Amino acid sequence: MLPVWIIEEAVLRALAEDVGGGDLTTDALVDRGATAVALIHSKEAGVLAGLPVAERVFQILDSKVAFEELLPDGGELRPGSVIARVRGDGRALLTGERTALNILRHLSGIATATRRLVDLIAGTGACLVDTRKTTPGLRVLEKYAVRAGGGHNHRTGLFDGILIKDNHLKLAGGIAAAVHRAREAAPHTVRVEVEVESLAQLQEALDAGADLVLLDNMPTGLMREAVQLASGRALLEASGNITAANIRAVAETGVDLISVGAITHSVRALDISMDVGEIKQGIINR
Q1: Average pLDDT over the chain, rounded to whole?
Q2: Which residues are designated catalytic?
Q3: Which CATH superfamily is 4-117+268-281 part of?
Q4: Which of 161, 225, 229, 280 is the residue whose CA sits 20 to 30 A from 200?
């Protein structure tokens, strides 16, 4: 589930950006008190995500708007699938339309891309995880969409996990020193992960007691050797240039996790639209 305050903050920010001081077009053309019903539907196949956020868009504009979910987040979409029915103030429906759709389109695109990769590695034992390569200000929502698509979340930010990367190693004095310093500074509940580029570095990380090791841009043959070398002493995460074309081969090396930044930073928005029925004064068109 998404925290209420995260939804509220994201929606208020999005509405402020789009509506500003008012919707000039809708306010000029739609009478006060006019009511309507609208259907939100998908024009293509995919996986749905973002309904709680879209609902809040309309309810912030008018608390009396009724938002009826017809499909759940994580549900499969087909061309023509009706996602939700929205009833209420005509001005609120038209003013909130683009913001609600932008959110649904973007998050459903993430869920769809995630599900595709999850399906490709099914049965291998590897888990697909996201990264911090997200849209600034939308990370929590985007990571929610990854979960809706069947993926798993890596650390949310710098505050809830330790990942020692190549630039950290340059300033910390090497792998052993970095892991030791991280252990001394971190709470006992936080695991320590180290990024490596070779089997020699992997051995250093294992000897230093790393909990997880990120195999950065390793070819699959080297990944298999890394899995044998680690022998379960640490979880192994594959990362770097992983696509739909090679993810199955990566998963079959025996790694535990596969992180793909593209499922949040490079997805195509799903084609989702909203159609409003006849707007009437004082009644809801059913």
Answers
A1: 96
A2: 98, 133, 165, 195, 216
A3: Quinolinate phosphoribosyl transferase, N-terminal domain (3.90.1170.20)
A4: 161
